Recover the amino acids of this structure.
């Protein structure tokens, strides 16, 4: 497979070791190209500097969460009956293109 090396950010609710073991069972050739990292938590000093307390979201995680929420608005992605990864990826790309066109038309 010709895929680039990628890094997947996980929040602290995931266990990268367990995830890696399970993925290596089914996709050993892909796992040489994937690296997992836990996203950083803001320290107490960082929270104090921004005058926030309690839960403070990690910046990188919320980019992913927001993107997932936008994708859920695409009706074409509600059910995935695609037979190939290329077709599924194309549907995702079309969803984001549709979103970009809507944002550009609104401005």
């Amino acid at each position: 497979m010709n895929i680039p090396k990628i890094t997947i950010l996980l929040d602290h609710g995931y266990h990268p070791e367990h995830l890696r073991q399970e993925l290596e069972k089914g996709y050993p050739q892909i796992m040489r190209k994937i690296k997992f990292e836990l996203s950083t938590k803001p320290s107490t000093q960082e929270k104090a500097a921004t005058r926030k307390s309690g839960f403070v979201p990690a910046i990188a995680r919320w980019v992913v969460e927001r993107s997932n929420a936008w994708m859920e608005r695409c009706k074409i992605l509600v059910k995935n009956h695609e037979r190939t990864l290329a077709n599924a990826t194309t549907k995702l790309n079309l969803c984001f293109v549709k979103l970009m066109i809507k944002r550009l038309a609104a401005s």
User: Anything to note?
Assistant: The chain has a mean pLDDT of 78. The beta strands are 6-10, 34-38.
